[in-house]
Design brief:
CATH topology of the largest domain: Glycosyltransferase
Number of domains: 4
Number of helices: 15
Structural class: alpha+beta
Number of strands: 38
Low-confidence stretches: none
Distance between the termini: 61 Å
CATH architecture of the largest domain: Alpha/alpha barrel
Largest sheet: 10 strands, mixed
Radius of gyration: 27 Å
Mean pLDDT: 96
């Protein structure tokens, strides 16, 4: 624990229960303090944590550009805290003032999904703790903790909720409440509280970059019907609409958000119970700016309804996500493929708000483990996700049940907990505890993530051994190859394949850290491979239920060989009319498996297709993010009813293939990019005539570009100093035509 301070709270309204639709007004806190003027300040640090989310201000300005801090973890097991360097923000002479305003966030506001969507999952009240630590040049130390001397009030934010939205009434504005000369004589005093959970709770510093505004859009006015204005951001984002308004006291603007238009009207059915509505009430004092602090919405379109003569002066849309640095870029000669890449990238941006969520718009927004592990390698190419996934893996370990099962989501919401833990260890979801660490090590080379996760992997395997002593995992309650088309993959077959996969990953993890059980897991994998073939391939050729996903997974997991996989996939695609049918477990392995098996023409045909089903179909039908279903929308059927998101990144796992196969950048497997094999798979069909991109490794930028020639391809690679290169062009013949420093150029035929 880096700081020790009192927890404070302030009652802003009557008690609200879990079943109440809305919460109470936000509490505002304020503290003034003076510094010694006779000696310099070496360092000044502000620490803060909350059950709820906060925005901090110092001497009239925001301390940071962050939002929704300190983020979401299982607050019953640990609390995240933020650290801010405020050394240059303090007034060394005179009075300083620290202000804080808090929202319900994940701890007090709504959480869950259709299984259970309630408030107060962790707490029925907002609690806050902070400490200012001043280190003087003479060695003296001054600490200003939260306690009952802090002043407290309610203000303009009348209620806030991540899912429901925010209600701001400027008639209650407190003004510049963090200004040192602000008059707080009418404020109450904060109440010191006995913290809801154990005082021995582990305070864990937030290492993930904070959620910030990353992009600002100027929405286009689509229509105006009376006092109702409809705007198009042009991109499906996670964020908020920021408005400047003018009007009399009590006039208002009500903002609703949605991903689509249906017959020219805002479509909100797919939001389910999430209202995603912000309300701004004017004070009547000139032009007034409104920007929600404690919510975010998944939307492309926004409907603004004005009342009381309010007028819109300006509108902007802010896209928010964790401030992860960009590490990759990819483009080709095919604009639809380029948009597929951008759609997956935007899906990542919109779902990376502190943890990898499934979607940003409806009553869900949870850290589903299968979605996360399927997309993790793609995500790591796009952004520096090292700390991001370290935090999420800690969430998964915290969520692991006593019997070893990994729940379907992490953190597990306290509301409707059985919905996420009661299933029988869903295959592809549980294995996130091994899949993500192995992908993480491959990209970043840090074995700590392997050491931290291996005990949980072993506990899960122990559960499988007890649950399925014969090696065949059942399908009860599992999700299988979720959202596939056509004949579903046998869920027991999927589960047994992932059991074998987990054994193989456990072997790899043990080898990396020198654990003696590696051989035991190797033997387990071999046993499970035989078990699978005996149970699910009774004729020795086809897998029962006979789906594309089962063949590509069985091949990539090492359960069937290349000849078996190719024979069956050639047959399956012939039967399926050359169309994909995979769900989101299988899709990760589809394009890589086809290329490995010498079926790259089919891989490129699928990628570049504009027909249903496929990525290109969504692009030509207006998608700016990856859809949850292949048929989230079809020309013939319109918008799919029921569970339907237009911003799920799971099917965007093809980005991994774009970097590793289309560009050919493949880290050696020893961890990180000290050694790289360049093994491109060119488009021999001519649908894609060129491709280019880069990855910013820990050693520097690795760039690749290729283009089609009349009788082959030109392939150019640039690497930083210290990267050892190897080249593998498969059955093609390559001749090096030029080399300048660390830039290599080949003609490949």
């Amino acid at each position: 624990m880096l700081f020790d301070s009192k927890w404070i709270t302030y009652k802003t309204g009557e008690y609200r229960s879990a079943d109440d639709k809305y919460g109470n007004p936000s509490p505002y806190f304020r503290k003034i303090f003076s510094l010694r003027g006779d000696v310099g300040i070496v360092k000044a640090t502000l620490f803060a944590s909350a059950l709820g989310v906060f925005k901090l201000y110092l001497n009239g300005e925001a301390v940071s550009g962050d939002y929704l801090s300190p983020g979401w973890v299982d607050y019953r097991k640990k609390l995240p805290f933020m650290r801010y360097d405020i050394t240059d923000r303090l007034r060394s002479h005179g009075v300083n003032a620290l202000g804080a305003v808090l929202g319900d966030g994940w701890a007090v506001g709504h959480l869950g999904s259709t299984y259970a969507f309630k408030r107060c999952g962790y707490s029925d009240r907002i609690e806050f703790t902070a400490l200012v630590r001043i280190e003087y040049s003479d060695g003296d130390l001054l600490e200003i903790p939260t306690d009952s001397s802090w002043r407290a009030s309610s203000g303009a934010i009348r209620r806030s909720d991540i899912y429901m939205g925010e209600y701001i009434d400027a008639r209650y504005s407190l003004g510049d409440f963090s200004s040192p000369d602000y008059d707080d004589s009418n404020w109450d005093f904060a109440e010191e509280t006995v913290f809801k959970f154990s005082r021995n709770l582990f305070l864990d510093e937030v290492k993930v970059p904070p959620i910030v505004t990353k992009h600002i859009f100027s929405p286009r006015l689509v229509s105006k019907k009376g006092n109702v204005y409809l705007y198009d951001v042009g991109q499906n984002i996670a964020g908020v609409l920021s408005l400047t308004l003018r009007g009399g006291s009590g006039a208002s603007a009500v903002v609703r958000h949605g991903e689509l238009l249906d017959c020219g009207e805002l479509y909100v059915k797919n939001l389910r119970k999430a209202e995603a509505t912000d309300t701004f009430v004017l004070s009547g004092e000139g032009e007034e700016h409104f920007r929600p602090l404690f919510t975010y919405h998944g939307f492309r379109y926004a409907e603004i309804t004005l009342t009381g003569g309010a007028e819109i002066v300006s509108v902007s849309a802010e896209a928010m996500y964790s401030d992860l640095s960009s590490t990759g870029e990819f483009s080709t000669s095919d604009e639809v493929v380029n948009r597929i890449y951008l759609n997956a990238l935007w899906g990542q941006r919109d779902n990376f708000l502190g943890l990898p969520t499934d979607c940003p718009q409806r009553d869900e927004r949870l850290g589903w483990t299968a979605d996360a592990q399927i997309f993790a390698p793609s995500a790591m190419w796009n952004m520096d996700c090292k700390a991001f996934y370290e935090k999420y893996l800690a969430d998964i370990r915290d969520a692991q049940l006593g019997n070893g099962v990994i729940p379907a989501v992490a953190p597990v919401p306290p509301v409707g907990i059985y919905a996420y833990t009661g299933r029988d260890a869903a295959a592809g979801w549980c294995e996130a505890i091994a899949e993500i660490p192995c992908a993480h090590f491959r990209m970043y080379g840090d074995k700590k993530i392997i050491r931290d996760s291996l005990p949980s992997v072993k506990r899960l395997l122990e559960y499988y051994a007890v649950e399925s002593p014969d090696g065949v995992r059942g399908g009860k309650g599992a999700y299988g190859d979720w959202l596939s088309l056509g004949t579903p993959s046998d869920v027991s077959a999927v589960s047994t394949l992932y059991y074998a996969r987990l054994a193989s990953l456990a072997e790899r993890m043990c080898e990396l850290v020198g654990d003696s059980e590696a051989e035991e897991y190797r033997a387990l994998f071999e046993r499970l491979r035989r078990v699978f073939r005996k149970r699910f391939m009774p004729d020795g050729e086809r897998i029962l239920s006979d789906t594309q996903s089962l063949y590509v997974m069985a091949y990539k997991f090492g359960v069937i060989d290349a000849a078996e996989a190719k024979k069956n996939l050639v047959r399956k695609f012939d039967e399926d009319g050359g169309k994909l049918t995979t769900g989101f477990l299988g899709i990760k392995f589809l394009l890589p498996a086809l290329c490995d098996l010498g079926m790259s023409a089919l891989a490129y045909s699928i990628l570049t297709s504009r027909e249903f089903p496929g990525w290109g179909y969504s692009v030509v039908n207006g998608a700016t993010t990856i859809w949850e279903h292949w048929d989230s929308y079809t020309v013939e059927g319109g918008i799919r009813e029921g569970m339907n998101s237009f911003n799920h990144y799971s099917f965007g796992s093809c980005v991994e293939w774009m970097y590793e196969y289309c560009l050919g950048i493949r880290p050696s497997g020893d961890g990180g990019f000290g050694r790289v094999t360049f093994a491109p798979v060119f488009d021999v069909t001519g649908k894609i005539r060129s491709a280019r991109g880069h990855y910013d490794s820990e050693l520097g930028r690795i760039s690749v570009e290729w283009k089609a020639l009349e009788d082959g391809f030109e392939y150019t690679v640039s690497v930083p100093e210290g990267v050892e290169c190897a080249f593998d062009f498969g059955d093609m013949t390559a001749s090096e035509t030029a080399r300048t420093g660390n830039t290599y150029r080949f003609v490949v035929r």
